[in-house]
Design a protein that fits this description.
The complex is a heterodimer of chains A (401) and B (238). Chain A is of the alpha/beta class. Helix content of chain A is 41%, strand content 16%. The longest helix of chain A is centred in the C-terminal third of the chain and has 18 residues. Chain B has 9 helices and 7 strands; from the N terminus they run αααβαβαβαβαβαβαβ. Chain B starts with a helix and ends in a 6-residue tail after the last strand. Classes of the chains: A alpha/beta (401), B alpha/beta (238).
């Protein structure tokens, strides 16, 4: 099949779940012999490259201070039009697009070129209520969601069956490859430091107690520091990268800022950590959690959204009830988070934990999710997709629904 | 210079926000690279606290580079591995370095952040230069009423080196002289573009930023940075 993934941002310029999901699925499909084309945008000059058998077209991105201030979505919509033009010329057999890909012309493309598409939701469908998205959903050959809660919301909103297609974790790439520092346990935060919803601020508050009770622990901040454009309007840049939340100078000195690093660094960073922490609010899925588990490291996460479907066994970590934005600033929640982190440091020192975490992560293995992706795209490209075809999921997925 | 820097920028595996912050620093990066190439086209180079673009461009141009970096710099893993020293700035400057080992030393925004006074820093580094070696120094100039907005933990453009002192142009001349160096060339330069493309700005704010930038282009004395080329007192350079 000739498969296109149109999405506004991509690795390395944006390192959130959707970009990683595309990266891994595109690579998997290319290895299976499909002709895979990722169409995205770049802050630099437009160009086409090939990585791991995947062709990547970087379209030049609109970026200007006035644009981000007055019409922050314009850049995404311009990308949608540029991508549609390219797709019209290229006529792939099938597209995998996301509800937040700003490809509003997808239904028109389907009419003009006959290109069917899988529309993947990474947010609850009932949070989005605009006509263009409904048109996209109506014309999609297959609807899918990254979590079971999102699948349910898509089915309710559009009265159509939706497939469960979580982001995959590459178990060969993400594996324990570095020993844990038992005497100086590392608490690893892989979330975006500038996105308040990821809970970096709450973690810094919690760090006061963690450091007091476990003075040799080190907090490693290994996430990106904000995407460009629209996000600061909603969450503010400065809210998280604020060490004043850590009261004690010794506790501050035990914080290491690594930044997002390189994809190749991540397995070692997860592996050496005692616990990976993502105390976020309304996380769509929580890809970093499955990656951490695959590297044998337990996790602590906020309970809203996808993490509550991943961390469901005390052997692999715990969730804390971060359900509202006020929880991200609550001293009581910071205390709960600190306690959970301390417990997880203890959990990670047990001999069976690493193996148990890795086994748990295999539920979302790239092999399993990739096969499911391929099946759904083949069904979509065949023309019409029956309710039965969508429902014919990997038994492991079905069992857990 | 764009023809040299653009391909490097395209190849950086950085996030989009970091990309735009690095792009913002391009005028100073271009100035330092231009001067480096003019005074020493090749050789052993010491970079003290460079940003990703400056380091990559100079390495791509063929310099055999040693890098000294502070721990909280946003630096790619490859360059972090290449850093021969990683420590707080004062530790970097205090630790022994090879005497007479370098053809060229480039140090942006270090003098004003060092605990030691500029004369002591320049004296130490002068010892690391080969006999005909060259030191490129970039200093942020003090401006009355200038608001310095530094994030507490990270800087995406240059490594975060909070200024501990102000360094004026006469002080650079005097410190160089006392360190046995002479300023063979010194210019006020614009260290950054008018705006960061990814940073939202209202129209009035944007117009002000563009107007200030244009004014700096017209009046060198208003520029925010001074770049000096220092050589041994007896050295002549082209």
């Amino acid at each position: 099949m000739r498969i296109a993934f149109p999405y506004y941002t991509y690795w390395p310029y944006a390192r959130r779940g959707v970009e990683r999901c595309i990266h891994d699925l595109a690579g998997f499909l290319a290895r299976k012999g499909h002709d895979v084309h990722v169409i995205t945008s770049t802050p630099g000059r437009g160009r086409t490259t090939k990585e791991d058998g995947v062709r990547i077209t970087y379209l030049p991105q609109l970026a200007h201070p006035l644009l981000w201030h007055y019409t922050p979505l314009l850049s995404m919509h311009v990308f949608g039009l540029q991508a549609a033009k390219l797709l019209q010329a290229e006529r792939p057999d099938v597209m995998h697009t996301f509800h937040c890909a700003y490809l509003l012309a997808a239904p028109l493309l389907r009419t003009m070129t006959g290109t069917p598409y899988l529309l993947h939701f990474v947010l609850n469908a009932d949070w989005t209520d605009h006509k263009a998205l409904k048109r996209q959903a109506r014309s999609a050959a297959v609807l899918a969601g990254v979590s079971r809660a999102i699948v349910d919301s898509v089915e309710t909103q559009f009265a159509r069956p939706s497939a469960f297609l979580p982001p995959p974790v590459d178990m060969n790439f993400f594996r324990p490859n570095r020993g844990k520092k038992r005497s100086d346990p590392i608490v690893f935060f892989p979330g975006d430091l500038a996105d308040a919803r990821k809970g970096g601020g709450l973690l810094l508050r919690a760090w006061n107690r963690v450091h007091r009770e476990c003075p040799r622990a080190v907090l490693v901040l290994g996430g990106p520091i904000g995407p460009v454009g629209w996000l600061p309007f909603e969450f503010g840049y400065e809210s998280v990268v604020n060490l004043d939340l850590v009261e004690d100078a010794g506790a501050r000195a035990a914080i290491e800022l690594r930044g997002p690093g390189d994809l190749d660094d991540l397995p070692a960073w997860y592996s050496e950590a005692a616990v990976t922490v993502l105390p976020s609010l309304d996380e769509a899925f929580g890809m970093v959690l499955t990656e951490s588990l695959a590297c044998g490291t337990p996790v602590i996460a906020g309970a809203s959204g996808g993490p509550s479907e991943i961390v469901t066994h005390p052997d692999v970590g715990a969730t804390i009830p971060i359900m509202h934005s006020s929880d991200l600033e609550s001293p009581a929640m910071a205390d709960r988070l600190a306690e959970a982190i301390l417990n997880a440091i203890d959990l990670s020192s047990r001999t069976q934990t690493s193996q148990r975490c890795r086994e748990w992560a295999s539920q979302w293995s790239l092999e399993r999710v990739g096969m499911e992706e391929e099946r759904l795209l083949e069904a979509a490209s065949s023309g019409s997709v029956s309710r039965a075809q969508v429902a014919e999921q990997d038994p492991a997925f079905e069992r857990s629904r | 210079m764009g023809a040299t820097i653009d391909p490097v920028m395209d190849s950086l595996a950085v996030t989009d926000r970091v990309y735009f912050h690095l792009k913002w620093t391009e005028p100073l990066v271009a100035e330092l690279v231009r001067r480096a190439v003019a005074v020493k086209g090749a050789g052993k180079l010491l970079l003290i606290c460079p940003n990703e673009t400056l380091a990559r461009v100079l390495i791509k141009l063929g310099y055999d580079a040693d890098i000294w970096q502070v721990p909280h710099a946003i630096f790619s893993p490859q360059l972090r591995e290449q850093a021969v020293k990683s420590a707080a700035l004062d530790e970097l400057l205090a630790a022994p370095a090879p005497v007479g080992g370098y053809d060229l030393i480039v140090m942006p925004f270090v003098l004003e952040a060092a605990g030691e006074d500029p004369t002591a820093v320049l004296s130490t580094l002068a010892n690391c230069l080969k006999q005909d070696g060259v030191l490129l120094v970039a200093v942020r100039l003090p401006r009355p009423g200038r608001k310095v907005l530094q994030p507490a933990l990270a800087s995406l453009s240059w490594p975060l080196l909070p200024a501990t002192r102000t360094v004026t142009v006469p002080e650079i001349f005097s410190a160089s002289r006392q360190a046995g160096l002479k300023v063979t060339r010194g210019n006020h330069v614009i260290s950054r573009t008018a705006t960061i493309s990814s940073q939202p700005m209202a129209l009035a704010e944007w117009l002000r930023a563009v107007a200030v930038h244009q004014a700096k282009r017209l009046f060198p004395g208003w520029r925010d940075c001074y770049v000096a080329t220092l050589t041994g007192a007896a050295t002549r350079i082209p």
